[in-house]
Design brief:
With 305 residues, the chain is of the alpha+beta class. The protein has 2 domains: 194 residues, Glutaredoxin, CATH 3.40.30.10; 82 residues, no CATH class. It contains 7 helices and 13 strands.
Length: 305
């Protein structure tokens, strides 16, 4: 549904960008492991729990979510009505260096019950044959979760698919409705916001080269937001866009929203960024369903050495 009739803006993402001028950096949803299941049934607002998957399958996946921290479950699909043969199921262990992507081809959803998901993410040799060297490109199109995801996300997904082919998928909620269209690139768990058809090729080709595209980067989901911010400011300063150029060594909370983040560079250097969590001065609508504005967090750079 659109924003209140009193607003000159119809969608929360338009309000965030045009009225509030909210920055994208350090807004990525936190997740280390992404489970992505091809599902062509109805995507409701709470897609996985409200789906028609069997209760046994739901309980199996939910038990894994409870046992392992920072897990996100997504539905994915390609546009159009088609018969799923086979069913694609991806497990991205994004917080490993380098990240690992597993692909399973299922004949029915009940085969998920035969997968020991904890063994998968622990890299049990039994699943070594399912490791693939592949890059996946997701665009959130879950319109029942938020109108922006369908209104603006569908054209972006089409543009991504024109470049990435079968590696491009529609996805359920990635997080951050007001920053739509939202994209997620796996296995490195790179989160982008405010995608447009015009930059789709740039985003895809950047990742294929092993690089990030800073103007639309929200962050990598494997990092907490102070680290996402520190990495963003460091890359702005150095111009080094290689995905694996930096890794965090520590993140220390110094109080009053100030964090000191140490990062190691692939060049052998060590860098320290001091960042501060602040409230963005302009209120936003966090979703298109919101009836009132709210305040959101953003990060400022205090020092970099």
């Amino acid at each position: 549904m659109p924003l209140p009739a009193s607003e000159p803006y119809d969608f929360c993402s338009v309000y965030s960008r045009q009225a509030a001028g909210e920055p994208l950096r350090a807004t990525a949803t936190r997740a280390d492991i992404w489970l992505s299941l091809e599902y062509t049934g109805r995507w409701d607002r709470r897609a996985f729990p409200q789906s028609e998957l069997s209760e046994a399958v739901k309980e199996h996946v939910s038990a894994f979510e409870e046992a392992v921290p920072n897990v996100r479950v997504q539905f994915i699909r390609r546009p159009g009505n088609y018969v799923v043969e086979p069913i694609h199921f991806f497990v991205s262990v994004a917080h490993k260096t380098p990240p690992v992507l597993y692909r399973f081809l299922l004949s029915e959803y009940e085969e998920l019950l035969d997968l020991d998901l904890i063994a998968v993410v622990r890299h049990d040799e039994a699943y070594a044959g399912n490791v693939v060297d592949q890059k996946l490109f997701f665009v959130c199109n879950n319109g029942l979760r938020d109108a922006c995801c369908a209104k603006f996300g569908i054209p972006v997904q089409r543009a991504v698919a024109a470049v990435a082919g079968e590696d491009a998928w529609q996805s359920t909620h990635i997080g951050g409705h007001r920053l739509a269209p939202n994209l997620l690139f796996l296995p490195h768990a790179i989160s982008y916001g405010r995608g447009t058809p015009e930059i789709a090729e740039t985003l895809v080709e950047s990742y294929r080269r092993g690089e990030l595209y800073l103007p639309h980067l929200r962050g990598r989901t494997i990092y907490e937001r102070p680290v996402q911010a520190a990495e963003h400011f460091l890359r702005e300063a150095t111009g080094n866009l290689a995905v694996e150029a930096y890794r965090p060594l520590s993140a220390e909370n110094e109080g009053e929203g100030v964090w000191r983040v140490r990062m190691a560079g692939s060049d052998g250097g060590e860098y320290t960024a001091q960042v501060a969590a602040r409230r963005w001065p302009e209120l936003v609508y966090e979703t298109c369903n919101a009836t009132e504005k709210s305040t959101v967090e953003h990060y400022e750079l205090l020092s970099l050495s």
